[in-house]
Request: fold
Amino acid sequence: MDESRKKKKSEPVLPWMRQPVDLQQFEELSLDLVPCLDPRLKAALEKISIRSLFPVQVAVWSETIGPGAFERDLCINSPTGSGKTLAYALPMVQQLSSRKITCLRALIVLPTRDLALQVKKVFDAVAPDVGLKVGLAVGQSSVEEEISVLIKKPKLDVGMSFDPEEYRKEVQCSVDILVATPGRLMDHIRATKGFSLRHLCYLVVDETDRFLREEYQSWLPTVLRLACLDKVENCYNAGSNAVSTIGQLRTFRRSGVERGFKDKMSPRLVKLVLSATLTQDPSKLSQLVLHHPLFLTAGHKRYKLPETLETCTLLCESKTKPLCLIALLHSLRGEKCIVFTSSKKRTRRLTALLKFFGEQPFKFSQFWGQQHQSRRSKTLDSFRRGEIDVLISSDAIARGMDVEGVRNVINYDMAPYVKTYIHRAGRTARAGHSGRCFTILRKNEFKRFKEMLLKAGEAACEAYTLPADLMDKLRPLYDSALAKLKELDVETKGLKRKKDDEEGYGPSVDDA
Reply:
């Protein structure tokens, strides 16, 4: 037995993960048959053309509504495009609607603005119909604009004396549900008067494995601490040592009651953690301080691709890789595609090359993480509306983003890890629709790619062959575009050298 297999066998597995709820045992269920569903929610779902719930949504509903509702924290490991967002949104909204009081009771945290905007749209579709208000804290607008929506300030009557202390006490959250990114959430925790987590009932950590891998300003321990103390002010002033153990967290959380809810702690903070590639590392999962967790997953495989996904490979030489991509896009005849590259630089360079090809039978644009938010949003909207056929992107769009009608995913650069591949491939074949995932490979990459597919639970892949006459037809255009790109490189390098000289940097090692 080789060392890698020995290591895999010796990796610890948490006891509660050994006997999961198998999502494959559940079937799609008509809304008319969903037990205890609020008629207002049913009407809201039908308004957005949803007539039934997917298996993961049925499974979560059965564990959260009725007897034993939300008694356990939920860890959901379900393939991309299976409907995880509505799976947690629906039962949370139904439960929150039973209390007629406005204060921040549900917090959904996501790693990117684009994903947070998408999730808010899901809540906007169902929450207002049962009288709940949804807020957004992602840094898309100024802090002041967000505060004006999130915080309710008391009205001052003319002639009444002004008491600053009483005024400060009456400032409070004016939303029931908040969708946030970690950075802006921490801004409000630190500086926004009236922003309180003391009544928090639900915490959703979407794309959990990414959060547990990166620091994100230590938002998670901060939220857990604040949600488990009597007063935000006391906790914040106490600093990082306010809660040091899991036992203290459980001691601070008291059971709330319906009457006088604002002066009491909420019931136990329920946590829902989700990902298509949920980690099984005990040291990472321990950060979530889970209460008697229940693990829901699709089958016994750690990773699973959508069943309606077709996997294809395209072998080529390094020097003809861009030509193969363009020929592939021609052969797909305007179908909506996402082309993944390994970086922002690769995305921009490939986009520039495509522009030098001249008129194409498809419209394309680029997308990467460091673009201005308004630009990214505009590009995504155009892609959704069909004004753009091909989106060339870094992995900024790989996780969670849902764009209806994406027929193909093309890995121009092979995914570096199996998790990355799963998230990329998951942009197509969503919600039961079919889709294809192409990977353009050099010969020396094929073996590693096959190993990656096996980890993803996919043994077979189809070899895709491009028509020879199409390659011959496009080659002169490719040679011309490549020459123009090299000219642009020379020009750009010259401008950079000139700028460096003017600023006193001189030539770089690369220039030499």
